[in-house]
Amino acid sequence: MITFGSVAKRGRGWLPLIGLNALIGSAVTLALPTILGRSVDSIVAGTGYTRWLIAAAAAIGLGIVASLIDAFAGAACVAETTAWLRHRLVHQVVRGGPEGSRGFETGDLVTRVSANATDAAQAGPAAVTAIAAIAPPVGSLVLLALIDPWLAAAFFGGVVLVILVLLAFAKRTADVSLAYQETQGRIAARLSESLTGIRTIAAAGTTGREEQRILGLLPELHQQGVVTWRILARSGAQAAVVGPLVLVAVLAVGGVQLVAGQITAGELFAASQYAVLGAGLGTLTGVIGEIARAKAGVQRSAEVDAITTVPHGSLELPAAGAGHLTFDHVSVVADGNVLLNDVNLELPGGMTVAVVGPSGAGKSVLAAVAARLRDPSTGHVSLDGVPLQAVSRHALRRAVGCAFERPQLVGRTIGESIAPDAINPVRTLAAARATHAHDFVSRLPNGYFTSLRRAPMSGGERQRLGLARAWPANRLLVLDDATSSLDTATERQIGRTLTEDRQLRTRLIVTHRPATAARADLVVWLDRGQVRAVAPHADLWSNTSYREVFG
């Protein structure tokens, strides 16, 4: 579970280094007033001031070195923590499957993994810096007490006011930081939606309206930014008032004590410097702001980290098996809606099975459950006698391949989109030929090495690449309307390839085309989440309701 503390601890060896340098910096800050005060007294006395000036120069040099090391260590700590956090969040998103990230909008999810992870990674350095920043004021109080107790009393009264200002600032800025990040995520989500449907937007001539929709949250973001600056300005103004009061109080008491002969001129100078340090507690507003942003980033990252990953077993599938698929009392319920209702199916291995039904019948849900892209609410699905939930991840994905109506192709090149793990020319070419993707890929300037992002492809060509990627599965091939964008001739060719497949595996095909159903060995007819019939297409065609499924 991701918490502020767990993220901060990821700094590991960097945090002690940051803390050490912060302490060195604090020690230098506290030592300089005393050293300079002694220098003043030595100059007044006319002797011994050289060694104090050398000590001052050495202290200043040490402080500069500590600041440089601190800057490097802080940047390295944030970079390493960000990398760890992003890796963990991406792992949760990917292993959570389609259902795990369903509660997040795409753009918002990207914002959480990218920008908010960076904010969260500031937790460690910001916390250490905040703790170290307390040392100078506390040290100043102690050193003032050593010079004169009345100076410490005057200093303490002013510091209490500064602390009250900081506490109020911390509370107000934490809320507005979270609201600001959430609004950024909503803007990113709207932009992502628009990019996905950019062709539709352009064709409809609604670009202006879409721009207003995306940027419609900018006034809200602006308002939150204004609130942030107002909080910062108010706290800064309060600290600016309290700070001089602390200095004036210390100087007034110090002046009286100087006249009374209780302190020297050098000690009064040192006291004034310690008073400035105490008043400088207000500079902690910057550090507190970082902590607030880090807490907000941690909170938004923790929501992603809470995604439940899909658990996998450790079993292998039996060596002999052709994809015998069993649905045993399978039901799927989502948001109170019954998507599948007590489905019982025995689909023999090595057969082509078409899944048909009206819109909303549960075809895609059945396909997703068969491929274990989602788990049933009740019941279980078995492949060659082994429950899918008990099969190891590697064995499952080697055995089951999926292709969809709108495939999302990944990889740098066409070849990688077919065989993403490692470009195997033989495997890639065989899959592309079987799905007739080779027909158009071979005409591209760089063939299978053509950049995927720049390759001009129609919807049907993208579907063929999606089919090619799924093709190597050795037990079960699940096609969810994966040939809907193909022209009739190509669809017929691929249909023939599927029905004549010699790899002895089951082909589960969600389709709206009667020709595809006619080529299948069996048809599973779904209606309102229930199996209405399982039979060959020819046997069902006499049923008027069945024919209406195809329009």
What does this 3D model show about the protein?
The protein contains 22 helices and 10 strands. The chain has helices at 4-9, 14-45, 49-100, 106-120, 123-132, 135-147, 149-196, 198-204, 207-215, 218-259, 265-279, 284-305, 363-370, 393-399, 414-418, 425-434, 438-441, 459-470, 488-499, 514-519, 537-540, 544-549, and strands spanning 325-334, 337-347, 352-356, 378-383, 386-387, 400-404, 476-480, 506-510, 522-527, 530-535. The strands form 2 sheets. The protein has a 6-stranded mixed β-sheet. A 4-stranded antiparallel β-sheet has the order 2-1-4-5, with helices on one face. The longest helix is centred in the first third of the chain and has 52 residues, at 49-100. The model has no long low-confidence stretch (mean pLDDT 83).
Write the layout of secondary structure elements.
Layout: H1 4-9, H2 14-45, H3 49-100, H4 106-120, H5 123-132, H6 135-147, H7 149-196, H8 198-204, H9 207-215, H10 218-259, H11 265-279, H12 284-305, E1 325-334, E2 337-347, E3 352-356, H13 363-370, E4 378-383, E5 386-387, H14 393-399, E6 400-404, H15 414-418, H16 425-434, H17 438-441, H18 459-470, E7 476-480, H19 488-499, E8 506-510, H20 514-519, E9 522-527, E10 530-535, H21 537-540, H22 544-549
Parallel strand pairs: 3-8, 3-9, 6-7, 7-8
Antiparallel strand pairs: 1-2, 1-4, 4-5, 9-10
Number of helices in the DSSP assignment: 22
Q: Strand portion, in percent? A: 5-15%
Radius of gyration: 35 Å
Lateral strand order in the biggest sheet: 6-7-8-3-9-10
Distance between the termini: 51 Å
- List segments where confidence is low: pLDDT < 50 over at least 5 consecutive residues: none
Q: Looking at the structure, what is the overall shape? A: elongated
Helix- and strand-based class? alpha/beta
